[in-house]
Amino acid sequence: MTTKTAYKKHYVAIIGGSISGSEAAKILAENGFRVVVFEMNKLPYGKIEDGLPNWHINLRNRQIKEIDSKLDHPNIKFVPNTKIGKEIDFLDLATNWGFSAIILANGAWQDRNMPILNIEKFIDKELIYQNSFIYWFNHKHEPDYSGINYVVKNNTVVIGGGLASLDVVKVVMIELVKKQLLIKKGIDVDLFTLEKDGINKILELYNVNFEELEIEKASLVYRRTAMDMPLKSPKDETKERIETARLVSEKLLNKYLEKYLFEFVPLSVPSGFIENNGKLTELVFQNVLIENGKVKPIENSFFNIKTEMLISSIGSIPEKIEGLHYEYSSLKMREKADYHVFGFENVFAIGNAVTGRGNIQESKQHGRQMTEKIMDKHLTEEAFELWLIHHNNQIKSKVAEQLDGIIKEISGAKIQPESILNEIINKTDSIHKKIGFTTYQNWVNQNMPIRLEEILKK
Ligand SMILES: Cc1cc2nc3c(=O)[nH]c(=O)nc-3n(C[C@H](O)[C@H](O)[C@H](O)COP(=O)(O)OP(=O)(O)OC[C@H]3O[C@@H](n4cnc5c(N)ncnc54)[C@H](O)[C@@H]3O)c2cc1C
């Protein structure tokens, strides 16, 4: 148990409380650092709550329990409903709040733009992005759900190739089959059963032919082949392990195709669309080949797929926060640094916010390894003294500015660590008061959404 006397001087702000943020917070708290975790949502479950489709019940519950046990620590203040870049300006946080280090663990929440010229005019009509689609799927049963309501259409095209795109195409097929089974056959099967047993087995069980449902299958279009899909990570980087992982990925995809009855269209990239009366009706694809590991379009080799719904699942990028620097779609890091953010002495990044990809284990591991490095190299006593001098100089020059150039003797106005600490506590307490936050556990209990599986049990 950490005692008050064991506190380290640094006060650290973490932006985002999910997989990587909670891992960092726990490590820091257990090492005697005081931490504030700012989270834009009510609850700190990130992609676990809003990204993984809700049939991952055990995985979700396990991860949520783990995040809760990490964040519910006396050295951690959890500040929900507070988006950095919106409720609090990032530069204000970095310069005025008194944190001697900031760790960005804000994940990747902005869908990568679909690279088809002018396709954006169909957004939230015929074009849907993965993040909002899965958010709808996971939350539409909640009594207070007020987001967009999507209706899944026949012939949906999903573009992508990662784990997430498989989840998306599964959602599409499960939604279509569930609806048509009820309409055409009066059979009501819940989505958890369809997902677990597979659509093929359920149709067999009820003696229904797929054709009777009058569903036109969804297509998953990928620019590479099934073997290239990152469905299985190699155990190490040896040629044999990589080859084994590629074969497993292909096998897994075939299993999915058999269970969920969608089409797979490999080696194709989107290049255009056809519209009719302002509605998207067809997508144009170009065939490609893989040359030396690179995707190479084949000249004059195009084909069309009729569709009323395109779901883009080509990856997420970090949402830009004003005050930080970005290079293309990634957060700009210091040269060769794997965690140190460009332009700042004391700002770091971990998890999807910097990797832009990966799974839960990888994000957790990245959070852990980087936090240990940050702690060893940057959260030292000397680093704190340097930061304190810098912080006091900033305050001095600000006071001088405010006094309109009048030269004043303000060396006595040095801010001491205890008053910095008190200011952080006052500011976070006032947010807590405003939103009615008492303890972490109470807050979680008050705000945990109702689960679909609980509704179905009733
Ligand atoms: C559809 C889908 C399916 C997936 N399936 C799997 C799977 O089956 N298995 C697996 O292992 N992995 C899966 N993953 C990947 C996994 O979910 C991520 O790798 C992991 O959750 C990343 O953790 P993170 O903490 O870096 O980011 P996130 O989980 O994205 O957490 C970031 C947190 O920061 C908060 N935040 C963001 N911006 C701000 C801000 N400005 N201010 C304050 N707070 C902010 C967010 O609300 C969130 O809580 C899947 C991902 C998706 C999208």
Strand content: 15-25%
**Backbone CA Rg:** 25 Å
Total beta-strand segments: 17
Q: Please describe the biggest sheet, giving its number of strands, its sense, and whether it closes into a barrel.
A: 5 strands, parallel
Please, how many domains? Answer: 2
Which term fits the overall shape? globular
Task: Provide a count of the helices.
Answer: 15
The CATH class of the largest domain turns out to be: Alpha Beta
**Cross-sheet strand order for the largest sheet:** 3-2-1-4-17
Low-confidence stretches: none
What distance lies between the first and last C-alpha atoms, to the nearest angstrom?
Answer: 42 Å
The structural class is: alpha/beta
The small molecules bound here are:
flavin-adenine dinucleotide
- Range of helix content: 40-55%
What is the CATH architecture term of the largest domain? Answer: 3-Layer(aba) Sandwich
Could you explain how this protein is built, in words?
This protein is an alpha/beta fold and 458 residues long. The protein has 2 domains: 4-109 and 318-379 and 416-457, 3-Layer(aba) Sandwich (Rossmann fold), CATH 3.40.50; 110-316, 3-Layer(bba) Sandwich (FAD/NAD(P)-binding domain), CATH 3.50.50. It contains 15 helices and 17 strands. The protein has helices at 19-30, 46-50, 57-71, 90-96, 130-139, 163-185, 191-197, 199-205, 239-260, 352-355, 360-378, 381-402, 417-435, 440-447, 452-457, and strands at residues 11-15, 34-38, 76-79, 101-104, 110-111, 127-129, 157-160, 219-221, 263-265, 268-276, 279-291, 294-306, 310-313, 316-317, 326-327, 330-331, 347-349. The strands form 5 sheets. A 5-stranded parallel beta sheet has the order 3-2-1-4-17, with helices on both faces. Helix 1 packs parallel to helix 11 and helix 7 (191-197) packs across helix 8. The longest helix is centred in the middle third of the chain and has 23 residues, at 163-185. The protein is globular, with a radius of gyration of 25 Å. The model has no long low-confidence stretch (mean pLDDT 93). It binds flavin-adenine dinucleotide. Flavin-adenine dinucleotide binds at residues 15-21, 38-41, 44, 46-48, 51-52, 83-85, 105-107, 109, 134, 163-164, 167, 319, 321, 351-352, 358-361, 363. Residues 15-21, 38-41, 44, 46-48, 51-52, 83-85, 105-107, 109, 134, 163-164, 167, 319, 321, 351-352, 358-361, 363 line the site of flavin-adenine dinucleotide (FAD).
